[in-house]
Amino acid sequence: MSIVVPGEHVPAQHVNLKLGPGLIQLSQGSTSSATPKSSIISTRAGSLYHSANGSKWWVESNARRYVPAPQESVIGIVTQKAGEGFRVDIGSAHPASLDGLAFEGASKRNRPNLKIGSLVYARVSLAHKDMEPELECFDAQTRKAEGFGELKSGFMVRCSLGMCRKLLDPNHFLLPLLGAKVSLEVAVGMNGRVWINSKETRHTIAISRCIEAADPDGKGMEEGEIKKFLGTLDA
Amino acid sequence: MRPPSPSIPEKEFVYEALKQSLRLDGRQPLELRSPRLTYGSELGYVECALGKTRVIANVDAKMVKPLPERPFEGLLTIHSEISPMASSEYELGRPSEEEITITRMLDKVLRRSDAIDKESLCILAGQRVWHLRLTLHFLSDAGNMLDCACLAGIVALKHFRRPEVEVIGDEVTVHSPSERAPVPLAIHHTPFCLTFAFFPDETTQPVLDPTLLEQRLSAGLMSVALNAQRELCVVQKMGGVPLVADGVLSVINIAVTKVKELDALVEDSLREDWKGRHVEVR
């Protein structure tokens, strides 16, 4: 692992190279032919990681602003109804569009009825720097919901993007720890939003405070501290 | 850009929790986020944080000619532009409604409440007076920026010391801080601002020091500014929620006790900071 800053050359080389977040390959024309340096540069500051065989490279860093990337699941707020579909705020620089037919079992006659202000759990189906992001609430191949759709009741917590990735990591301690204490439902978006629901209001508040306390952007508590903190909460 | 209104689940959850007197950050309804004051190396530079809301206040003084209609009075100006650094919903050059409210309240609480003795800022009548500039930088908005800014502003004024001047005849000598110890400003009283949020459901208790979400979902906000001597300086109410007279009085009574605590906290932290500074008097 090493630290990179934007614009730094990265020595990534493999016959079947895959670049993750924070890395781009410069087109051959823009690199001067005199320097035999690699044409892969980083676009953000963070720590550089690669897989064991060196085929996958990525930069890990924490941020609060979401930049959409295809196939990521996000939580959005419906801000407007626009003809056949909806305008959804996913925390990015531009609002995303969600087609009214991109739901399980939706047809011309039977379209989902989302109110303005509803929360939706969706997948980014199109993310391009020159175009508005697009969302979908089903798997385009199977046309099944796969857990996507409207999120009713519950509460939405905002956290840093790094915290969201941590929550999605099956080896992270927080969600199993909370799940052992109270029964809860969670939907983690990659855009710094986490939807939670439990039977009682005070449980939901305790969960949301634990997520905020474990956020590396905030207090960044570790497992032992969280356990202690959870003991002080009325949950 | 208008701030996006909170989603339906968030709204319902906050109202439901408040009905049970539960707040999202675990506070009691009438509990203040305890302010954290950090002083810079220069006098008159203070960073105030209420939870994740952060404001920096800085005071500087320069000599100017007084206004012809008030030859014996110094000047105090407050600069409080909210930059997009606080939150992406603020824009430079296009003040939002909230920004206008904050600017006007700061003017009322810090300037028009006569907290600073303006006549003591006079150096030579009609010729030279001190002009104090209070600049506020809003770093991040997590609700209730007004109280945070008022607190930062008044603490900065209390922390600030102006250079000593000597007047012999028409000759004005300014002593540099290394020569003679700078003098504190003459402050009549220290007003603090406290904001309460009221909710559409009448059975819900009002909350003190609302967070961003509570502020957005409130039906009305009431800000009261008063000092530890129980003198009320400003009362402002925004939003259309109707309040009974008794309700307003009880809110003010709560504010009285909170302001006393706040005053003690500020005095303590100023004393603590002053102890750490070495002032040489030759």
UniProtKB/TrEMBL annotation, chain A:
Residues 17-65 form the Exosome complex exonuclease Rrp40 N-terminal domain. GO terms for molecular function: exonuclease activity; RNA binding. CDD domains: KH-I_Rrp40 (cd22526), S1_Rrp40 (cd05790). SUPFAM superfamilies: Eukaryotic type KH-domain (KH-domain type I), Nucleic acid-binding proteins. Pfam families: KH_6, Rrp40_N, RRP40_S1. It comes from the Eukaryota. Its main location: cytoplasm. Keywords: Cytoplasm, Exonuclease, Exosome, Hydrolase, Nuclease, Nucleus, RNA-binding, rRNA processing. InterPro entries: Exosome_RNA_bind1/RRP40/RRP4, KH_dom_type_1, KH_dom_type_1_sf, NA-bd_OB-fold, RRP40_KH-I, Rrp40_N_euk, Rrp40_S1. GO terms for biological process: CUT catabolic process; exonucleolytic trimming to generate mature 3'-end of 5.8S rRNA from tricistronic rRNA transcript (SSU-rRNA, 5.8S rRNA, LSU-rRNA); nuclear polyadenylation-dependent rRNA catabolic process; poly(A)-dependent snoRNA 3'-end processing; regulation of gene expression; TRAMP-dependent tRNA surveillance pathway; U4 snRNA 3'-end processing. It is found in: Cytoplasm; Nucleus, Nucleolus. The keyword Hydrolase applies. GO terms for cellular component: cytoplasmic exosome (RNase complex); nuclear exosome (RNase complex); nucleolus. Residues 154-201 form the K Homology domain. PANTHER family: EXOSOME COMPLEX COMPONENT RRP40, PNAS-3 RELATED. Belongs to the RRP40 family. This is Ribosomal RNA-processing protein 40.
From TrEMBL, chain B:
It holds the Pfam family RNase_PH_C. GO terms for cellular component: cytoplasmic exosome (RNase complex); nuclear exosome (RNase complex); nucleolus; ribosome. One of its GO terms (molecular function) is mRNA 3'-UTR AU-rich region binding. Keywords: Cytoplasm, Exosome, Nucleus, Ribonucleoprotein, Ribosomal protein, RNA-binding, rRNA processing. Residues 32-163, 190-256 form the Exoribonuclease phosphorolytic domain. The keyword Ribosomal protein applies. GO terms for biological process: exonucleolytic trimming to generate mature 3'-end of 5.8S rRNA from tricistronic rRNA transcript (SSU-rRNA, 5.8S rRNA, LSU-rRNA); nuclear mRNA surveillance; nuclear polyadenylation-dependent rRNA catabolic process; rRNA catabolic process; TRAMP-dependent tRNA surveillance pathway; U1 snRNA 3'-end processing; U4 snRNA 3'-end processing; U5 snRNA 3'-end processing. It is found in: Cytoplasm; Nucleus, Nucleolus. Belongs to the RNase PH family. PANTHER family: EXOSOME COMPLEX COMPONENT RRP45, EXOSOME COMPLEX EXONUCLEASE RIBOSOMAL RNA PROCESSING PROTEIN. This is Exosome complex component RRP45. It comes from Guyanagaster necrorhizus.
